[in-house]
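User: Predict the complex with zinc ion.
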Amino acid sequence: MNHEKKHVFFRRVSTTGQSLTMQQSADLKYRDKLLRHQVLLIEESAISANKKSTDERPEMQRLISLIKNNRVDTLYAFDRTRLFRDTFEGMEFTDLCLKHQVKIVYTSEGNGHIQSTQDIFLESFLGMFSDMEGKNIARRTHEANKRYPPKKLGYTKIKEKKSYIPDEKKETILKSYFAEVNEITDMEHLCTILNRYQKELKCSAERLISIAQDPFYAGFDLENGENRLPHVTPYMTLQRHKKLQEEKGHLFTTYKKRLEKQKSQDTFAPICGLCKKPMLYRISVIENKSNYSCSRKHERVLMQFDDLSRIIQQLLQETIKNLNFKKLLYDSTLFFRNYKKKLVMEAKAIDHQIKKYMENLILSTNGYSPHWKDDLAYKKLKRSKEERELLLKGLDEANEYMANQKNMREKLETLLTDRLKENSPWLFSLFVRNIVIYPNSLDVEVSNFDYLTDLQKEFVYEVGEVS
Ligand SMILES: [Zn+2]
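Assistant: Here is the predicted structure with zinc ion placed in the model:
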């Protein structure tokens, strides 16, 4: 059983711990299907991991060596940004996974994220644009439960005793919030209460929900069993906390889900046609809807999110129809070739280093050591060289594959159409540069225009056409 391949969950942990919860919950449904011994967690600190190459990331190195030793069945990561710094690294990594038949599953849902395609060409195409991905997508998460939080709404932290006592200024309000939230009947009721206490406690509605769900306020940590926190003066008993979750928990969850969904949709960033400033994105949790609006010293400009989304959908459909696949494929081939060139040059540089290393070894007066092959520097150089050679070989194969691939166009078209069906922000960021909304119409400016044929550069829709 020891040699059974593992299902590896690779996570990025930032200093605030904020995104870990999100990653954990996203991969939970995959972990649930597995036995404990099949699962391997690798958590990487996100501190400037973005700036470091894979060589300088020990957790990444561990992952790579597991893959090379054929110990990995499937790799789960939240999305590409959790794995790679840039396109080049992404391609190297994809190549490695393909070679060792490692499946890659991206656990992020609904953020316009694209599942791994197991196809080095398509992966590289996606990789070309992966930098765009994520930029438009706001991801907000909740604070993780910690035993000694630096700050906790409603509490004053006594440093000397390391204890938490209710904050005099907020105690009464928070108590009445707990009392009222205990009595909520439906979503509308919950929203009304949240609206009021948001102002009184000067925090977001989301935060208020988290407070209602947080066992810290009962003086407990429930992450692993029931752990009483003796240093915390509770606002309520554990029984009451549990009862609140049992009875109102579904409303809290629905609220958060709706909010999360609406927030994740906010990717269009339209501009107001009258004042040329970004429009405000407003969410109605009760109606589970959102809209873009602006009324900065002018008549109100308003657009329902659903309407805008439908128009963009039409536009993207049109765009894909008019896509110059020939040019797109041609450019991707160029991209491939440049990548290869870069690798060849790197391999040459390493060759040179190895030569120099050998010269030093021979010329050094301390003489010859029979163990020079065990020298770390030599090993490292040799390994790098071997890796480059492997990659070059892989690229040769990929080049050939592309040259012989007749249905590449269909494949790409299918890929894009699938994204279209999912209403992908990625597709949007690829082809839409600007949206300007006027009281009765809107302009959409298309980008990556080089890849489009017979398509007017600007679309003008009358709002009446869609509503
Ligand atoms: Zn405006």
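The two ends are 60 Å apart (CA to CA).
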